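Lab notebook, page 48
Experiment: co-folding of the full assembly
Goal: obtain a model of how the components sit together before planning crosslinking
Operator: M.T.
Materials (sequences as entered):
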Amino acid sequence: MTPLFPIGVLVVVWFLSAIPLPFEYQIYWPLWLALSAFWFALYAPRFMGVVIAWFLGLSLDLLLGAPLASYAFGLALAVYLAGLFRLRLRHLTMPQQILVAVAFCWVTLQGAVWVRWLSGGQGNPLLSTVTACVSGLVWPLVSLSLNRIARRISVERV
Amino acid sequence: MFQPHSTSGAQLLFVTVLSGLLLLGENTLESVGQVRGQISSLFSPLQSLANHSVQWIAGSAQTNTERRHLSAEIQRLTLENERLMVRQQRMHALESENNDLRASLAAAARLDDEFVHAEVLAHSPDPFIQRMVINRGFSARAATGQAVLDMNGLVGQVVEVGSLSSQVLLLTDASHQVPVTVERSGYKAIARGTGHPDQLELINVPPTAEIEPGDLLRTSGLGQRFPQGYPVARVVSVTRQPGQAFAKILAAPVAQTDRLDRVMLVYRTQTARDRAFATLEVVPGDS
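Observation: model returned without errors.
Model output:
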């Protein structure tokens, strides 16, 4: 069991989240942090609880300059929901998991949008649906990569 | 490790309350913003690395030495040119102002602003947020509310300051407003961001206001936040509909806010008026 694995994943995910993109392409950039959180919530839940997800979301708020607690709340809510159905979700086929990953990212983004509205911000919720769909499309890549790495370095999966 | 649902539910309730408190604190307490600025600085190396990686990939075609020399020379000249362009903006504004003052035969000497170059470390990849991170913080005397320019005009203002980096809220962000004046007619208005990088809107402008497409908007200096006379945007469309109380006026910012590599921080020279305002702010119980 090595805590370096989630830390390494987190650094890579932060890096991917910080990559600057032109405005037109930003909505097509997957929500890498939410996808990796989803993977940990399904396959390595000892590394991913509601409180940890909240702090991870908070790091994304700081990284992206979003209102504090927006992504934090969204991600915590999504991880809570994933935790409720974790055992069932793990046994879904890949196409079904893609749909669930879309829903997971959508919940995260919607949570962030709600919090922004509370703080007086604006945002088109339909745009976040596009981001959630794109994130779902890269879920197989994230899932297979993390599964392979976890198997290679013998990360204990529950 | 399996967590009972009741524990997760309690944790969710806890983080929800924590989120509410954090949100409340950010909107009411200035100290929360300062702490946030300091913590955000921890991400500066990562943002810088991501930014430079993208630039490196984009510039990987330039491999030979001659190109490197040329690139360095171009970079130096670009910096110099940007500095001069900003000076030129100021000169245009001063020239216009000077003419007006001469006409009235009464003018006080105006002091010039100082500028410091800053490199853009990152743009916020979130499509709902128009912000960027620059490599100037407390150590470079950056301060909240400081105006940020590029070679074409106003870019935004500093909203969070860390030790070595700062967050800049772009003028196109939906939460940003800037007082402007129409260069041609002198009409005063407020330009608000729309959340889109190439669009601003003028709010609460009556249909009879003297504004036409093509008019240049400059900072009016009202509100004491932005220095007067810097270009902000050019009016793109004016829609006056019968029965509507206000005209719908859209403008395009003169700065390319989403494609900036370098900007300049404005250090205002304190005028007698500024000092008077500062004195008023620190007098306790002043009405």
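Interpretation: Chain A has a mean pLDDT of 87.
Next step: discuss with group before ordering constructs.
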